[in-house]
Structure formats: C-alpha cells, structure tokens
Design brief:
The structure is a homodimer of 218-residue chains. By secondary structure, chain A is mostly helical. Chain A is globular. The interface between A and B is medium-sized, with 25 and 25 residues. The first copy, chain A, binds a DNA duplex (30 and 30 nucleotides) through helix 3.
Chain lengths: 218, 218
DNA sequence: ACGAGGCACCTGTGATCACAGTTTGACAGG
DNA sequence: CCTGTCAAACTGTGATCACAGGTGCCTCGT
C-alpha cells in the first residue's frame, strides 16, 4: 500500500499542534458552541494520545481567549456577553478593513472567481440553515482576500478573531427561525474589489464584520 | 512575620503563568534581544521549578510569535527581517490608532498628568541611552491610553504586538550612537488628547506607532 | 596542517505518575 | 418531598522519566 493516500501533514508536525489545529477548526465553524465543556483526558482518548499534548493545546487556546480556563476547572467555550462580542467585532472591523484595503490591488481574476464561488456556497448553506458550511465558506471568502495583503502577522490575528467569534456566530445563526435576513453583501464586496476601489472595499468589509453583532443585540 | 510584605499575586496563579509573565515582561522592554536563545531546562533551574511549566510558557510565547520554536531546536527570540517588522508596525498603527480614537473621550485629568510624567521619564531614559527604562515608560504611556478605550480584547492584542516589537526596538535604540533623533511627539499626543480631538489623536498615534520602522529601514 | 567522520551533549516532545481542588450525585435527615 | 452533607470521580497542574533528533567539538586519518 502506498503512503500517498494517507493524510500527509502529520509527520513534520507535533501532536500538540495536531489537536490544536483540530480544536481551532471546530471553533471556527461553530462545531463547538458557547458553554461546551472540554476535558483534557477525554480529548486525549478521542485522539488516541497522552494527555500531555492535549493540555498544551488547550492552554494555548485559553491564552488566546479562544477557550476559558479557570484554575482546576474544566476548559469551556466562552459564552460571550454582548459587550464582549461587540468589542471583538469592533476589532475585526478595523483590522479586516485595513487588510481589505491593502489587499485590493493584489487580487487576481482567479481570486475573484473563487470569491464568487464562496459567495454561492454561503448562499446555499444559509438557506439550508447549515451554519457550519456557511461559516466555513465565509471564513475562506475573507481569508482569501486578507491573504493578498501580504502581511502574515495580520492574517494570523484576523484568523484568531474568527476563531473567537465563531461559536458566537454559530449560536446566532442557529437561533434564527427565518433565513430571510440574509442579504448578499458579499457580491457588492467582490464588485468593489474587482473595480479596485480600495476605500469602498474597506468600508464594505467593515460593515460586513460588524454584521455579526446584529444577533442578540440588546 | 506578616505576609502582607510579600508579593501577593503568586498564590492564586499558576507556575506556568509566572514564567510566562516574566518572559513577556523581559521581551517587552528589550531585556531579551533578537537572536537570544532560551532553554527550557535552564529557565526551569533559574526559577527553581520543573521543566513542565517552562515548556508550556515557551510554547505559548512561540504560538503568539513572541518566540520562534523550531522542532527539536532551542527557542529563540525572533530576529525579524525589515519586512516582518514593517508588517507588525503597520498592524500597530491601525490597531492603536483605533484604540486612541475610542479612548480620547474617556481620559481624565489624572490620566493626562500620568501621561506627562511618562513622557518626562522617556525623555531622561532616552538621553541616558537606557533602552529598557525608555521602552518601559513608552509602553505604560500607550497602555494607559488604550486601556481607556474600554476594550479588553483590543488591549490584549496591542500588548502582544508590543511584546513582539520590543526586542526589535531595543536593538534599534542600542544601535544608535547619537540620541539626537528623539523628538517629543508624545507631548503633541497629550495635547490632542486633552483637547478631545479624537481624529488628531488617532493620526498622531498612528504616526508614533510607525516610528519604530525608522531603524534599519533599507 | 587540514578536513571529514563520529560521538557526546544539547535540545524539545511525549508518557506516566502523584497531587490538590472542584464538581456531582447519592444518601440520610428533616 | 425537599434539603443538607459527604464521598467518590472528575478536573487541571506539576514532577520525573524515556526518547529522538540536532549541534558542535574533538579526534583520527590523510
């Protein structure tokens, strides 16, 4: 049997990084919801490894505020207050706005086509009430844009914020009964990017980033 | 003997957090310089503890890019390229600009007085070529402003960026022979804040954040 | 004298064990 | 039936040991 058929990213990486990435991906798309509790030994058993790598991954996620870790108590997915969520989306707006503005001149025609595909994926996921697929396509849409800003550190920070707001957004989407509220702002974003209008792109992205606050705003 | 005379923040916290904070403080003020190497067991011996807490702290710092951690090789303080440094200062500019704008209406007269004191401390440290004291006062100056923006998550992110740019700034300051280049822009910032001019404060802070790029720019 | 190979020491990573505080559920008493 | 209490099982944290890979110096051969 050839090895090529197996997943390959494992060997050069560390076990700790494996579970870290796994948790991060789950938070990003809302496969973990606010209040969910996570145990070191349970996760270790699921992954078939010792508790050591898992504990490191959880501690790191707690440090970057993707999880809460009280002393001697189980790690949990943070249940943000509206104020905390608003703060996060405020940061996302300024950070993603700047990234979009810087990325505008560097988007290729191929990129724009990919963005349109992501938009369509989001549309069908939204009407299916499939929060996970929706958030996944949404993240890939934004990540592609920001990656063209040629600033890796900035991309990391934005990704972190997506991870932290993921569970909140998933909770918000799942709490809706009517999927009517969705308006295809993303097409406007793609149009602005295509025209090379950096200022407009920035404004639209800022608006889109703040959209997540529309849930539960009291 | 009374316990009140001892440092108190220790007991409720974890050993791992202790060495984490210690390293972070050292990076922030440039007591660790780019290229410096850090060993788990050495640090553990210095702190009189097992290697376990130290490894967690180092891994966390590596994760937030405050240290580099190649596989099976010693952790080191990153020696940033000019491009990477420029990226970081670009992020600082947009993030700190936004924070300053939001904080402007909430600064008290007492805050402004403290800011002026920090400015004076920076001045004397600069003329003494004391990079550590300079960076410490500089950080406290900025941190006080941003703390008034009432956005803890934003404050965390900015602090992280200070930690990451600390060694670079220290290297830059120490490489200068003449301390002539220092211009007291901070007084202008305080003046703008005192007048409640949010837009001007933002612009001045952005300018100040980009100042760190003036070293070694090729 | 110079270069290449090898071995000893260094590094981080993972496993296993011991410990202390927290949570939870069951059982006894009102 | 409700409530207060206690014990067992859970939680994360820290220590110690074993392992594999990387680095560099020292020696042996030419």
């Amino acid at each position: 049997m050839h090895n090529h058929s197996e997943k390959f990213p494992d060997p050069p990486r560390t076990l700790s990084a494996t579970v870290y990435d796994d948790l991060r991906a789950r938070l990003l798309v809302g496969r973990l919801l606010p209040g969910d509790t996570i145990s070191i030994r349970t996760l270790a058993a699921e992954h078939g490894m010792s508790a050591m790598p898992v504990r490191e991954a959880l501690k790191q996620l707690a440090l970057e505020r993707a999880l809460t870790g009280a002393l001697k108590r189980a790690y949990r997915v943070p249940d943000l207050t509206c104020g905390e969520a608003a703060n996060l989306f405020q940061i996302r707006a300024v950070l993603e706005g700047g990234a979009a503005e810087a990325a505008t001149p560097h988007l290729s025609a191929r990129d724009l086509e990919t963005l349109r595909r992501r938009t369509r994926q989001m549309d069908v996921a939204w009407h299916k009430q499939d929060a996970i697929r929706f958030l996944e396509a949404n993240f890939r849409f934004h990540a592609l844009i920001y990656s063209r800003a040629r600033n890796d550190a900035l991309l990391d920070l934005i990704e972190n914020l997506f991870v932290r707001t993921g569970p909140w957004l998933a909770k918000g989407i799942l709490s809706l009964d009517k999927p009517e509220d969705w308006l295809g702002e993303h097409e406007a974003i793609v149009a602005a990017l295509e025209r090379g209008d950096a200022a407009l792109s920035r404004r639209l992205i800022e608006e889109d980033a703040r959209w997540g606050m529309s849930f539960f705003q009291s």
